Amino acid sequence: MALVPCQVLHAAILLSYCSILCNYKAIDMPAHQTYGGSWKFLTFIDLVIQAVFFGICVLTDLSSLLTRGNDSQEQERQLKKLISLRDWMMAVLAFPVGVFVVTMFWSIYIYDRELVYPKLLDNFIPAWLNHGMVSKVM
């Protein structure tokens, strides 16, 4: 039952998303105390979607490792449901929202930075965290 690189990659990506989410939530920003908190930002919503998606990927990988060599029809049926959920989430949520966020953010950022990421936010959000939240999904 050796881990293949794909499974290790899924686990590493999930951990990196969780670390970015923890760092983001630890920042004391004025926008977090207003209506909607951080959930009003599409980049944050996308980050949560990506973290949930890679969580499902890791769960699928673990399930396939644990059920390998097992002849149980019920476990195979459950694994197929989990795989179809993972595929649905990628096709419907993770990929379209991720591409939209990255494309729109950087297009608007190039046009006028103040519209999406004012210079005031540099005091709260480090450049690496902003880049990680926005560009990591691509």
TrEMBL record:
Location(s) in or outside the cell: Endomembrane system
Domain of life of the native organism: Eukaryota
CC terms in the record's Gene Ontology section: endomembrane system; membrane
Enzymatic reactions: 12-hexadecanoyloxy-octadecanoate + H2O = 12-hydroxyoctadecanoate + hexadecanoate + H(+); 9-octadecanoyloxy-octadecanoate + H2O = 9-hydroxy-octadecanoate + octadecanoate + H(+); 9-(9Z-octadecenoyloxy)-octadecanoate + H2O = 9-hydroxy-octadecanoate + (9Z)-octadecenoate + H(+); 13-(9Z-hexadecenoyloxy)-octadecanoate + H2O = 13-hydroxy-octadecanoate + (9Z)-hexadecenoate + H(+)
UniProt-recorded name of the protein: AIG1 protein
Annotated TM spans: 42-67, 88-111
Family, similarity comment: Belongs to the AIG1 family.
Pfam families, A to Z: Far-17a_AIG1
Gene that specifies this protein: Aig1
Main location: membrane
Keyword Transmembrane helix attributed: yes
Keywords linked to the UniProt accession: Membrane, Transmembrane, Transmembrane helix
Membrane topology of this protein: Multi-pass membrane protein
